[in-house]
Specification:
4 domains, Rossmann fold, alpha/beta, single chain
Length: 631
């Protein structure tokens, strides 16, 4: 069969995430490449003197193992995400995801489907204090070691390690773990997307440097200081640790927009109307300012004849003409008796709808550690199965700041699932339709009820959903009673999640490194590869792998349909049609073409022994403008 009549094969391995950057550089500066490789000396010449630093002494972040971390980033993943209906809630209708697996592998698998689609990322990674989980043995062992670690294949487990400060590569190991994950996370952000990363004083300096390198120093937005405790620790050796840092970066700061912070009841209480001004309530503002302004050095005569000058070292914030204009408009206040210093009336209706956000997040504004523990205990009946949750109020503040009621929210160090709870509760509060994607490693807990942290993640979200469903049903019933109508418990919000688990591909992947060298054994191996589906895999798992590796989201709409007696699935309103039948017919394939999809994927097994049908299908699909692939 000629190449022109052979169908494309669905790529089962993830792409090199650096490929797109090199392709863009090649497009802009093709002359910087020689024999297919980037030539740094040519690039430096093209950029001009000082455009590219090639010498050994230049500013930047380096550590032992950085090259290894970049290679781990580039290594393709041949895994997949296997659907787990029995662990999900409202699987077929929801747009939310909880994925169990190593987040490095999962982030690679999400690249095609979610590239540039995430509005907000929040992560609470290990703080590298030496006593908590960092990674199984090696931060980048790959899929096979993960499968051993998670018990999906035999051959022994993979031990968990912590990162002791006595280790000579203490900071380097942590940086090597974070670098590839942050790099892949950036790819998933929208142009106006933002990422929040919680950290403490152990690694905030290194995290700032590594994020500057990945996101660009120009895309740094803020170092938010969160007051995680409100009572000092009396057992602290020197100073009581009361805060965490939250580093905030944007994908492109030029297009990032934030919502204003709503005024609290205490702040609103400052607005009054003691003189019954028809313009409504107002707040008295200091008329003086510290900024030097020579035209602001004049004397003001009050209603009682008292004369006022600016305080020493300060100036009136206006010139005399503007002052007289404000005074004539009733915007200057001298107190009830007219004897006070002049103040400027700031009317609530004239000021912006909220306050400019700031970098100090006090415990009453964004919650605290004790509040987080109490929330978890309340959900789990008095016992918190997770030691270090974050308060939902903290993450809600981030979601409110992002000002997008319909964006995708990603947390790939999900822990107990606080991010999902914050998303669901805020959606209920403001009617939003935010969607969450959580990723959590099945780290063992030594508990029988929740053997892994991933079990805790899913269970917490289930309990939040039950709680919100109950509250919504009670509210609906109460409303129906008020209107004397039949009660109903219909809930329109998305209160569910699809559960997935990282696993090996449903297709046999050829690995030249493990291929037998003996001719007879090699021939047998090749014969086995002809039937390229792994034994015992269900069609739904195969379907979702094809959806994922075709670049469609895992929450895309799926419709089951009949194509001349064969089952097929229409994905994303016909953008993709998948047929997994093992004995395809021309009638079925033509029925699929009649549906006018953009792309069609069939199993290669479906054409077994019928090369003529495969050739004709390639030609017919091409003539109808349909991209055709086999898996």
């Amino acid at each position: 069969m000629s190449d022109s009549t052979a169908p494309q094969r669905l790529p089962l391995a993830t792409d090199d995430p650096l490929r797109d950057r090199l392709a863009e550089l090649r497009r802009l500066l093709p002359e910087a490449f020689a024999e297919g490789k980037l030539a740094p000396a040519k690039l430096a010449q093209l950029l001009g003197e000082g455009g590219l630093a090639l010498g050994p002494e230049r500013y930047g972040l380096n550590w032992a193992g950085k090259g290894e971390a970049i290679r781990a980033l580039q290594a393709p993943s041949v895994g997949t995400l296997l659907p787990c209906r029995d662990q999900s809630v409202d699987f077929d209708a929801t747009g939310n995801l909880i994925i169990e697996g190593d987040n490095l592998e999962v982030l690679k698998l999400l690249q095609r489907s979610y590239y540039g689609k995430v509005k907000l990322i929040y992560i609470d990674p290990p703080y590298n204090t030496g006593n908590e989980f960092i990674y199984p043995d090696n931060y980048a062992e790959g899929l096979q070691d993960y499968l051993k670690f998670s018990g999906q294949v035999s051959a022994g487990g993979v031990k968990l390690t912590t990162n002791a400060e006595t280790d000579g590569r203490y900071h380097s190991k942590w940086l090597s773990m974070m670098y590839p994950r942050l790099f892949l996370a950036r790819n998933l952000l929208r142009e106006d997307g933002v990422i929040f990363v919680s950290i403490d004083d152990h690694e905030v300096h290194n995290l700032r440097l590594v994020m500057n390198e990945i996101f660009g120093e120009e895309n740094f937005l803020a170092n938010i200081v969160w007051q995680k405790r409100y009572v000092s620790n009396v057992t602290a050796k020197h100073l009581s640790d009361m805060h965490d840092h939250i580093l905030l970066y944007g994908r492109q700061v030029e297009v990032v927009k934030f919502a204003l912070t709503q005024r609290s009841q205490e702040q609103l209480a400052d607005y009054k109307n003691p003189d019954d001004d028809t313009r409504g309530i107002w707040r008295a503002q200091d008329l003086s300012a510290s900024k030097p302004y020579q035209a602001g050095l004049f004397e003001i005569i009050g209603p009682t004849g008292e004369r006022f000058s600016p305080p020493p070292g300060r100036y009136w914030r206006c010139n005399q003409a503007t002052f007289e204009e404000w005074r004539g408009d009733g915007r200057i206040w001298f107190g009830k008796g007219g004897t006070g210093r002049p103040m400027l009336k700031a009317f609530l209706e004239d000021v912006q709808a909220g306050l400019t956000p700031n970098t100090w997040w006090a415990h009453d504004f964004a919650g605290h550690n004790k509040e987080a523990t109490l929330e978890t205990k309340a959900l789990f009946g008095g016992e918190a199965p997770f030691d270090t949750p974050k308060p939902t109020k903290l993450i809600r503040r981030m979601l409110e700041l992002a000002d997008d009621a319909g964006g995708v929210i990603l947390d790939f160090f999900a822990g107990s699932g606080t991010t999902a709870q914050a998303v669901l509760e805020l959606n209920k509060q403001d009617g939003g339709d935010r969607k969450f994607i959580l990723v959590q490693l099945p780290e063992p807990t030594e508990r029988t009820d929740f053997p892994t942290i991933a079990d805790i993640t899913r269970e917490r979200v289930r309990r939040v959903i039950r709680k919100l469903n109950k509250e919504a049903a009670e509210a609906v019933e109460e409303k129906k009673k008020e209107l004397a109508l039949e009660p109903s418990s219909t809930v329109s919000a998305d209160l569910g999640f699809k559960a997935f688990k990282l696993g090996s591909s449903n297709f046999k992947i050829w690995d030249s490194a493990t291929a037998p060298t003996d001719a007879a054994a090699l021939a047998e191996k090749l014969r086995q590869m002809v039937l390229n589906l792994e034994d015992g895999r269900e069609d739904e798992a195969i379907l979702y792998e094809i959806i994922l590796k075709s670049g469609r989201p895992l929450t895309a709409k799926i419709e089951k349909l009949d194509a001349a007696g064969k089952t097929a699935w229409r994905v994303a309103d016909g953008a993709l049609i998948v047929c997994l039948d093992r004995a395809l017919t021309q009638d079925a394939l033509r029925a699929i073409i009649d549906l006018k999809p953009q792309r069609v994927v069939c199993l290669d097994l479906g054409f077994s022994g019928n090369d003529a049908l495969k050739t004709n299908t390639v030609l017919e699909m091409k003539s109808h403008g349909v991209e055709f692939q086999t898996a």
